């Protein structure tokens, strides 16, 4: 989630700033709510709780279906300035603390969404089946058809957006990883080499970063790779730089 605006540049006017959310790791975005909101996740990401971050408010807004629908309730008869909404560090709980100020007085509210009485989700090991409340999701940058990032494909199990249930605090998310075949995109230029925008070819930069002697003898020659694998990349086989 994030606050911002649609357009060629960032706007800072309150009436131009809205709250957006993404279900695909930031590849695409939808408007979640008008205005800038402070937000927090609970129930392993299955519950979102928000409040106005700029204006005084009486309302708390929440969604248990990843933004498909939003609900609100009145927190107080008197508007407050909300500073933050927090939950426990792992964001597995359905309990939150909202704190802020009312005039010169600090206020704090305990929000317990267990009272929604949603059942626990079922079918975590049968994700993508009709009877399961879960689906699989593979992060992608939208460019590669094999959905590989940093040389590996990672498959997460998450609750279906339309499933009316909670994951529960003891939920353990299944994650599957497999390495992909290397391509040129898994490599970057070694020090002293550069590539042009839109090109994958690394050429000697001759910019002084790598010292080159004016005169060489037969024993002075050595060879260096123009490419190196991107740090953290785990691809295997496939394309390899020419020696």
Automatic annotation (TrEMBL):
<keyword id="KW-0677">Repeat</keyword>
<dbReference type="Pfam" id="PF15901">
    <property type="entry name" value="Sortilin_C"/>
</dbReference>
<dbReference type="GO" id="GO:0016020">
    <property type="term" value="C:membrane"/>
</dbReference>
<dbReference type="Pfam" id="PF15902">
    <property type="entry name" value="Sortilin-Vps10"/>
</dbReference>
<dbReference type="GO" id="GO:0006892">
    <property type="term" value="P:post-Golgi vesicle-mediated transport"/>
</dbReference>
<feature type="domain" description="Sortilin C-terminal">
    <location>
        <begin position="87"/>
        <end position="238"/>
    </location>
</feature>
<dbReference type="InterPro" id="IPR031777">
    <property type="entry name" value="Sortilin_C"/>
</dbReference>
<dbReference type="GO" id="GO:0005794">
    <property type="term" value="C:Golgi apparatus"/>
</dbReference>
<dbReference type="InterPro" id="IPR050310">
    <property type="entry name" value="VPS10-sortilin"/>
</dbReference>
<protein>
    <recommendedName>
        <fullName>VPS10 domain-containing protein</fullName>
    </recommendedName>
</protein>
<dbReference type="InterPro" id="IPR031778">
    <property type="entry name" value="Sortilin_N"/>
</dbReference>
<feature type="domain" description="Sortilin N-terminal">
    <location>
        <begin position="1"/>
        <end position="85"/>
    </location>
</feature>
């Amino acid at each position: 989630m994030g606050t911002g605006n649609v357009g060629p540049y960032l706007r800072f006017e309150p009436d131009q700033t809205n709250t957006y959310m993404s279900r695909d790791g930031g590849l695409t975005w939808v408007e979640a709510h008008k205005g800038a909101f402070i937000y927090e996740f609970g129930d392993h990401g299955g519950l979102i709780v928000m409040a106005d971050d700029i204006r005084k408010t009486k309302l708390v807004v929440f969604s248990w279906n990843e933004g498909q629908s939003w609900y609100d309730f009145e927190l107080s008869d008197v508007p407050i300035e909300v500073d933050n909404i927090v939950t426990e560090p792992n964001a597995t709980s359905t309990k939150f603390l909202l704190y802020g100020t009312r005039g010169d007085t600090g206020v704090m509210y305990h929000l317990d969404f267990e009272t929604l009485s949603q059942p626990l989700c079922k079918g975590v090991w049968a994700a993508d089946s009709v009877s399961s409340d879960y689906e699989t999701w593979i992060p992608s940058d939208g460019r590669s058809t094999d959905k590989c990032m940093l040389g590996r494909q990672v498959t997460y199990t998450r609750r279906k957006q339309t499933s009316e249930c909670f994951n529960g605090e003891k939920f353990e998310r299944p994650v599957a990883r497999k390495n992909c075949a290397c391509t040129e995109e898994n490599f970057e230029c070694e020090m002293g080499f550069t590539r042009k925008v839109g090109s994958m070819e690394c050429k000697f930069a001759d910019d002084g970063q790598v010292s080159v002697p004016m005169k060489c003898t037969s024993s002075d020659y050595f060879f260096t790779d123009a490419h190196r694998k991107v740090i953290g990349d785990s691809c295997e086989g496939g394309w390899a730089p020419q020696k």
